[in-house]
Amino acid sequence: MNIKLYSAWYCPFAQRTWIALEMLGLDYTYIEIDPYDKTEHWMEISRGKGQVPVVEFSDGKANRVRVPDSIRSLEFLNDLAAGQFWNNAPTLRADQRYWLDHINGWIVPQFYRFLKAPVGSAQSQESRTALSEGLASLETATVGRGSAIDAKHPGMLDVALFPFAYRMNLLLPYYKSFRPLAHASSLGDWFGEMCRSEDVRATSAQVEYYDDQLLQFYEPYAAGGGQEDVTTIAN
Fold it and tell me: Which of 84, 167, 179, 185 is 20 to 30 A distant from 134 in Cα terms?
């Protein structure tokens, strides 16, 4: 079995997949790539998307697949390893999917909207409030409950949320003087425990001065630049 992860060190979507590979104990080859360099080879690997992550799998026989997108790759790797990222109970799994949509369709874009908004602007206040409310509703409904925001037994929601929670906790105090997890005690405890996970730490250890590098990379976002599609609110 051969697994390759095409990733970019700074990308939270790619870090989701990287964390999953570590947590599931799968052997893999990490390949750092510049997704902004849309070469013919990269577009072929990414199946025309030109974005990280991409998981490439081969069993050494006839079975081979390239899986772009963080959530699709998480699901694929979890199935491959017979993992427990999804709850076995159908009702709780349905609830997990609901909150996964909430993370991807509300929390993530509101984080980027707030990061990009001029300090003191109406957009800044609106996105800050929306982000805070989104995190609060997630915390109330999931932390310590069966649908599982649980750092002791990480599942789909933990892996999906953490890379963005890490960037919120680093970037928003620095650029916007706001600590989104400061008043979320249960979520704050979860965040601290996830940060101590060896599987999580393995995904940042390859980059020297990781936090400083992230601050530098996201500086254009904090000035209103960066990718536009990350601010899109899901219907």
Answer: 84
pLDDT of residue 1: 80
DSSP 68: E
Tell me the domain boundaries of the chain.
Answer: 2-80, 90-231
Q: For residue 121, what pLDDT is reported?
A: 96
* Short-list 64, 72, 68, CA closest to 44: 68
Pull the structure tokens for residue 122: 């109406």
Averaged pLDDT for residues 167-191: 89
Which pair of structure tokens corresponds to residue 173?
Answer: 């105090």
Angle (deg, nearest 10), helices 90-102 and 156-176: 20
% of the chain exceeding 70 in pLDDT: 94
DSSP 207: S
Instruction: Give backbone dihedrals phi and psi of 26, rounded to 5 degrees, phi first.
Output: -90, 140
101: which residues sit within 8 A by CB, 6+ positions away?
A: 234
CATH of 90-231, one of 1.20.1260.10, 1.10.8.80, 3.90.1150.10, 1.20.1050.10: 1.20.1050.10
Contact 165, 139 (CB under 8 A): no
Length of the chain: 235
What is the band of 235 on the pLDDT scale with cuts at 50, 70, 90?
very low
pLDDT, tens digit (0-9, with 9 covering 90-100), for 74-122: 999 999 999 889 888 898 889 899 999 999 999 999 999 999 999 999 9
